[in-house]
């Protein structure tokens, strides 16, 4: 997308606004799929939690992707987008047996990550195939908050509890049709991923009726110019060979599965905001924008880096700014960042705003959540309206319980 395209969208739809480039999503999907072209059966299940807009889910379906979901609401969104139940995987954590049963009744693939629910579900529904999520005890991920495969993680069943799993499977007669792992996000070291994959292969040998092995995701994308990223092509070459060899050992052609989220949508996204005020203090120049961590929490939550460009003045002299939001507490997007000269009223863009940005937005400070726009075939399509004051009141129930107290006062 060009700066002129972003400015036109900000002018038409106002700010702040999220914009997603469908061509980038498509190219990322094809890049990952082609990295494993030597494997006969590959299935990419898009992680809905990264960006759950219905239009994005429909785009994923058109590309051939399935969906990886973590809540019954995400499952319903997927079904509403037209995705077949067989192409949806449900991988929750800490949810009730009732929710899992309700999703299973929809025909969705169930993925269970704890012994208690595995035994309860297998006892009641031995004929429904289940995938098992393994915790490989491999520390991986770019931040402690997104590293989920280590020994203290709440996710997955420990590899040291394989005997417990086997006993439950034997006692219930349930069928295990898949094994799964997810070690974390922003994984850079291919060898760490391959090491964890070997643990998953060893686990798979215990189950004779598998249809697929799901290796999770967590591939790192570049966040700034010159940034390093997961080498998908080398990883694809190495894991494809190992997977094909394992299928020969296993005696059956299995499906190789992944559940990419950030890898597919992060780089497609731009978050546009208007500069309300440029404020000079004794030591800092602040650029205060018409948004805050209520709309984009990743910098405050994960210390995440988002490149910031001034689309209104892309060739101006570079100066140092601390970009801050309008939330009434510490609300910092960037500190002493080199950006083309900013004046009040300029539109700035945050890059890599496609994953875990709008999906983590809130109404904190009673602010409205922004609009979303899909840039497709060089046209801007509104895919979510900006919220209004009526949206804030929608589920609130007003009463007159204080009327007597008011009269008394």
UniProtKB/TrEMBL annotation:
<protein>
    <recommendedName>
        <fullName>Diaminopimelate decarboxylase</fullName>
        <ecNumber>4.1.1.20</ecNumber>
    </recommendedName>
</protein>
<feature type="binding site">
    <location>
        <position position="329"/>
    </location>
    <ligand>
        <name>substrate</name>
    </ligand>
</feature>
<dbReference type="InterPro" id="IPR002986">
    <property type="entry name" value="DAP_deCOOHase_LysA"/>
</dbReference>
<dbReference type="GO" id="GO:0008836">
    <property type="term" value="F:diaminopimelate decarboxylase activity"/>
</dbReference>
<comment type="pathway">
    <text>Amino-acid biosynthesis; L-lysine biosynthesis via DAP pathway; L-lysine from DL-2,6-diaminopimelate: step 1/1.</text>
</comment>
<feature type="binding site">
    <location>
        <position position="298"/>
    </location>
    <ligand>
        <name>substrate</name>
    </ligand>
</feature>
<keyword id="KW-0456">Lyase</keyword>
<feature type="binding site">
    <location>
        <position position="356"/>
    </location>
    <ligand>
        <name>pyridoxal 5'-phosphate</name>
    </ligand>
</feature>
<dbReference type="InterPro" id="IPR022644">
    <property type="entry name" value="De-COase2_N"/>
</dbReference>
<keyword id="KW-0210">Decarboxylase</keyword>
<dbReference type="Pfam" id="PF02784">
    <property type="entry name" value="Orn_Arg_deC_N"/>
</dbReference>
<dbReference type="InterPro" id="IPR009006">
    <property type="entry name" value="Ala_racemase/Decarboxylase_C"/>
</dbReference>
<comment type="subunit">
    <text>Homodimer.</text>
</comment>
<comment type="similarity">
    <text>Belongs to the Orn/Lys/Arg decarboxylase class-II family. LysA subfamily.</text>
</comment>
<dbReference type="InterPro" id="IPR022643">
    <property type="entry name" value="De-COase2_C"/>
</dbReference>
<feature type="binding site">
    <location>
        <position position="356"/>
    </location>
    <ligand>
        <name>substrate</name>
    </ligand>
</feature>
<keyword id="KW-0457">Lysine biosynthesis</keyword>
<feature type="modified residue" description="N6-(pyridoxal phosphate)lysine">
    <location>
        <position position="49"/>
    </location>
</feature>
<comment type="function">
    <text>Specifically catalyzes the decarboxylation of meso-diaminopimelate (meso-DAP) to L-lysine.</text>
</comment>
<feature type="domain" description="Orn/DAP/Arg decarboxylase 2 N-terminal">
    <location>
        <begin position="24"/>
        <end position="266"/>
    </location>
</feature>
<dbReference type="InterPro" id="IPR022653">
    <property type="entry name" value="De-COase2_pyr-phos_BS"/>
</dbReference>
<dbReference type="Pfam" id="PF00278">
    <property type="entry name" value="Orn_DAP_Arg_deC"/>
</dbReference>
<feature type="binding site">
    <location>
        <position position="218"/>
    </location>
    <ligand>
        <name>pyridoxal 5'-phosphate</name>
    </ligand>
</feature>
<keyword id="KW-0663">Pyridoxal phosphate</keyword>
<dbReference type="InterPro" id="IPR029066">
    <property type="entry name" value="PLP-binding_barrel"/>
</dbReference>
<dbReference type="InterPro" id="IPR000183">
    <property type="entry name" value="Orn/DAP/Arg_de-COase"/>
</dbReference>
<feature type="domain" description="Orn/DAP/Arg decarboxylase 2 C-terminal">
    <location>
        <begin position="18"/>
        <end position="354"/>
    </location>
</feature>
<keyword id="KW-0028">Amino-acid biosynthesis</keyword>
<feature type="binding site">
    <location>
        <position position="302"/>
    </location>
    <ligand>
        <name>substrate</name>
    </ligand>
</feature>
């Amino acid at each position: 997308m060009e700066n002129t395209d972003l400015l036109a969208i900000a002018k038409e739809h106002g700010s702040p606004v999220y914009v997603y480039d469908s061509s980038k999503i498509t190219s990322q999907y094809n890049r990952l799929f082609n990295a494993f072209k030597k494997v006969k059966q590959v299935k990419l299940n898009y992680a809905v939690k990264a960006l759950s807009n219905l239009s994005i889910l429909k785009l994923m379906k058109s590309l051939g992707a399935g969906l990886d979901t973590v809540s019954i609401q995400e499952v319903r969104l997927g079904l509403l987008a037209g995705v077949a139940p067989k192409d949806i995987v449900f991988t929750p954590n800490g949810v009730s047996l009732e929710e899992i049963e309700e999703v299973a009744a929809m025909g969705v693939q169930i993925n269970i990550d704890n012994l208690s629910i595995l035994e309860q579900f297998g006892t009641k529904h031995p004929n429904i195939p289940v995938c098992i999520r393994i915790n490989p005890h491999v520390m991986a991920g770019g931040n402690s908050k997104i590293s989920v495969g280590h020994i203290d993680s709440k996710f997955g069943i420990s590899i040291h509890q394989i005997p417990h799993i086997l006993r439950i499977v034997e006692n219930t007669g349930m069928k295990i049709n898949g094994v799964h792992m997810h070690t974390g996000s922003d994984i850079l070291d291919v060898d760490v991923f391959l090491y964890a994959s070997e643990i998953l292969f060893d686990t798979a040998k215990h189950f004779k009726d598998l249809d697929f092995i799901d290796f999770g995701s967590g591939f790192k994308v570049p966040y700034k110019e010159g940034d390093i990223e997961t080498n998908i092509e080398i990883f694809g070459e190495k894991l494809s060979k190992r997977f094909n060899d394992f299928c020969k050992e296993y005696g059956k052609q299995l499906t190789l599965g992944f559940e990419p989220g950030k890898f597919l949508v992060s780089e497609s996204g731009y978050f546009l905001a208007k500069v309300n005020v440029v404020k000079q203090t004794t030591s800092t120049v602040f650029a205060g924008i018409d948004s805050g961590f209520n709309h984009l929490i990743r910098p405050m939550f994960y210390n995440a880096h988002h490149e910031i460009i001034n689309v209104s003045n892309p060739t101006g002299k570079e100066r140092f700014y601390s970009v801050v939001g309008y939330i009434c507490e510490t609300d910092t997007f960037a500190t002493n960042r080199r950006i083309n000269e900013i004046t009040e009223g300029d539109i700035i863009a945050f890059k890599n705003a496609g994953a875990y940005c709008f999906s983590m937005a809130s109404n904190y400070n009673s602010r409205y959540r922004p609009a979303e726009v899909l840039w497709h075939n060089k046209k801007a399509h509104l895919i979510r309206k900006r919220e209004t004051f009526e949206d804030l009141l929608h589920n609130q129930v007003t009463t007159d319980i204080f009327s007597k107290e008011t009269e008394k006062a």
